[in-house]
## 1
Amino acid sequence: MANPYSPPGPSGGYVPPPYPQYAPPQNARGSGLTVLAYFAVIFGSLGLLGAPMTLAGRFIARDPVSRRTQEIMWEGALGVWTSVSLFIGLILSIVLLSAGIGIFKMRPWARRLSLIYGVIGVVTGILHSIVHFALYVPAMARLADEFPRNPMARAGAIGGAIGGVIGALFGLALPVTMLIVMTRPLIQAKFQAQRPHG
């Protein structure tokens, strides 16, 4: 029996209503942002452990080379940078962890935090590279001269120089990725869609 409330078809018979078309929500987080959020939470959490572990290294060093290395890290201009970088790193870790949690929940402020982290992270990474070659590498070379017969001192000097370059490149990867992803128009539109209207 034809439904009297349905619109008539070409021959006056029943025409079933069209099925609603599914459209993915425009503000969906997507797999890319999900992966980025996981990285932000993981590295933000690990970063919070960086300062305590660095401070603990001053007290757990036992052999003469390790103790002297810790003394060098905390004296003069290099010591000032060590203190400043630990403080900046702690703040950046908190910002990164908060941004990661906000990305999971698609909060508009998470994008702003991500951009702040990206800018400060890039600047800090560049400064770290400059300080590494200007202060740390020469200091490790002097350490090797202080212990000419100790292979650990020579290995530490070489490993420190190479590790600093690798660490700087690795440290820039996430801030640069944050800046690239969060400035894309599509990503910006997704976060703007979460803003309250009215």
## 2
Amino acid sequence: MKTISKGEMRSGKIIFITGGAKSGKSSFALKKASAIPGGKAFIATAEALDKEMRERIEQHKKQRGKDWDTYEEPLNIGGLVRIIGNKYNVIVLDCLTLWLSNLMHAGLKIDDAVSEFKNALGDFGEKGQTSAIYIVSNEVGMGIVPENEMARRFRDAAGILNQTIAEVADDVYMLVSGIPLKIKEKVRSGTEYH
């Protein structure tokens, strides 16, 4: 694992990337993050619960290559971000909706986990966490209303989670058919947005 030396440039930005399934979110995040020199970490929230998912995870690891250190963390992403935040120049977290699903299946309090993660992200600007972090999530509320209660709770929680992270992010992109649309950009000298 390559640690950051004092002389290396780091952006300290939070970049949130959302969009539909297979819209190109993860590829976009990896492409942008790969352009940043220095140590790279990938936080995977997916769990290898079946053969297809195990194969998918292995394929994704091969695509990232050896430049990336992979951390598999299905539940405590806030704690992990606090631990590795200053050890890498860039972190990609993929993805929040799988994390949310993991929290729901584990019976954990979603509000507490989201609050802890939001606080960990706040440390990037306030307590010296200076790595750039790309956070990937799915936009799940643009279709029909789900027919069952659990699916509706998931959709609503994902929408609130995405709003929460978009609020603290410096930049927000929405991917549509592989095309990134920047929908928020924080001006570094103030709090204005274009």
## 3
Amino acid sequence: MQLSLHSEYALRVLLYLGACPDCVVSTEEISTAYGISRNHLVRVIQTLGEDGCVRVVPGRFGGVSLGKDPGRIRIGDVVRHAEPNFRMAECFDPQANACVITPVCSLKPVLSEALNSFLAALNRYSLADLLAGGTREKMARKLVTISGVSTGAES
């Protein structure tokens, strides 16, 4: 299984914002730090905003910040919301399914179980868990090195 770039970037944005939980960060700053297209990042931030994970502050001096406490942002929920589809096999898409064995096949329930287990495993972790044990500070220092912009958390 491979996550889409949209999901991966959503997680990266949350890690970036988690490294500086009290900051409003420009989309351009995150784009530069990760080498991600700004246009793609805007769509990712929109997805995160729909779920309340981030708060968007419009305007010239606006940006994006965490919309929830990091302990309330479950990684599986983020992936579930950001992933465009979980079509693991052709039979998961009723409109495009042309597999002749679908009516008698027992593979789809097994794959569904695996997918649910995958998301449940991710949901055992929150953004706070990913930033624990000094990781937040290390991430802040790394982001300052990459972007040259102080996150306020790197000391």
